[in-house]
Amino acid sequence: MNEHMKIVTNKPPRKRGTLGVKKISLAHGGGGKAMRDLIDDVFLAAFDNPYLSPLEDQARFSLKDLGAHGDQLAFTTDSYVVDPLFFPGGDIGKLAICGTVNDLAVGGAKPLYLTCSMIIEEGIEIDLLRKIAASMAKEAAIAGVQIVTGDTKVVNRGCCDKVFINTAGIGVIRKNCNLDTGAARPGDVILVNGLLGDHGATILAARGDMKLDAPIKSDCASLNGLIDCLLDACPEIRFIRDATRGGLATVLNEIAGASGVSIEIEEDKTPLRTEVKGFCEILGLDPLYLANEGKIVIVSPPQKADLVLKTLLSHPLGKGGAAIGTVGDWDAGRVTMHTSFGGRRIVDMLVGDQLPRIC
After folding, report:
1. Is 195 found in the same domain as 143?
2. What is the spatial distance between Cα 311 and Cα 313, in angstroms, rounded to a whole number?
3. What pLDDT sits at residue 1?
4. Do residues 168 and 234 both lie within one domain?
5. Residue among 237, 256, 240, 229 nearest 349 (CA)
6. The total number of structural domains that make up the chain
7. Which residue, 165, 180, 198, is CA-closest to 276?
8. Confidence grade of residue 355 (pLDDT, cut at 50, 70, 90)
9. I want to staple 293 with a disulfide (CB 3.0 to 4.6 A). Which of 116, 199, 204, 340 is the partner?
10. What is the pLDDT of residue 351?
């Protein structure tokens, strides 16, 4: 527990329930003893901490203690419906933690507290929930966050696909940090922290629809430690965004549109795994639009770009970092790629969805 966060309660400890069944039934979402036993046996056992264990309808924090971390509160929410639930490099539980932590961290916030709400399909194995909860607890510990409140709902068989997870996250933004999608300026440098597209390619391969055996695994990771290092080294960074659904191309278009600038990236400098390139060629996909769950796009002032790249390369989650392009003023809102053949192609915002249910 964070040393600044002290909880005082007069409630005596209660005896926790245990489950005597192997599968989820509708009773486990009914609000009675069966649901309490599920919460105790699966979720409290995995997530236990002083904020969660009272099982109030809300987690309670001291505003003074929160304010010790910064002067702005960051609040985010997300939902996870990935198929399959388990895939090389991760699972829906790890993904839920990483995704929420990263959404806070890219705004300059220190992630502190998460919620976990699960929509569970009747009939699934309780051991499956235990695996998911254990994965969430492990990643939360890595990221230095606590799961402090949540909710459990059970729906009829066939009304959802095994498990859906909704999370929310609270963090505190460091003082004098003002990362903004509209802050890019001509001359700025675009950087990424490593190989792109691995998560999207992994999920498609894991589904087995194409009968491909690709040696790729998801890049799913909590990036708050890396982002802290970047902002410590270079507070002047203009903007950071994790390139999830829609991939690199979507983030670049958002930056160009919000800042009223143009962006050009270099194909030869954009890091892509050979297997991902081949995978996309076979399936007719564009790797620039593939989802990532452990990659960020950084906009740096030109005079700080070398420092940002050096900081990336010194961190385990940034060893594949690269400067891939620049910001210009020749065609506001336009993103282009300078290809390896010497030409240029437009990189538009994604229309539709290359791969549904990838996170």
Report:
1. no
2. 6
3. 39
4. no
5. 256
6. 2
7. 198
8. confident
9. 199
10. 78
Q: Of 141, 173, 205, which residue constitutes the final position of a domain?
A: 173
How many angstroms separate the CA atoms of 207 and 204, rounded?
5
Structure tokens at 356: 């549904």
Shared-domain flag, residues 334 and 196: yes
pTM: 0.94
Mean pLDDT value across the chain: 93
CATH number for the domain that contains residue 195: 3.90.650.10
- Amino acid 215: pLDDT: 79
Best CA proximity match to 320, nearest among 205, 206, 197? 197
**Tokens of residue 223, six digits:** 């990036």
Which tokens belong to 109? 């916030």
pLDDT 10s digits, 260-317: 999 999 999 999 999 999 989 988 899 999 999 999 999 999 999 999 999 999 999 9
| Domain span at 81 | 26-173
d(CA 39, CA 193): 38
Place of tokens 């933690």: 97
Phi/psi at 22 (5° precision): -105, -15
Residue 142 CA to its chain's centroid (Å): 14
- Does residue 162 sit in the same domain as residue 195? no
Q: Are residues 199 and 147 in the same domain?
A: no
Distance from C-alpha of 80 to C-alpha of 176, rounded to nearest angstrom: 32
Same domain, 36 and 91: yes
Pairing of strands 72-80, 163-173: antiparallel
Report yes or no on 142 lying in a domain.
yes
Tokens of 143: 């990221």
Residue 265 has phi, psi (to 5 degrees) of -110, 160
Is position 273 within any domain? yes
Q: Across the chain, where does the E strand assignment appear? A: 72-80, 86-87, 90-91, 109-121, 146-155, 163-173, 189-192, 239-242, 262-266, 296-300, 322-328, 335-338, 344-346
pLDDT at position 100 is 98
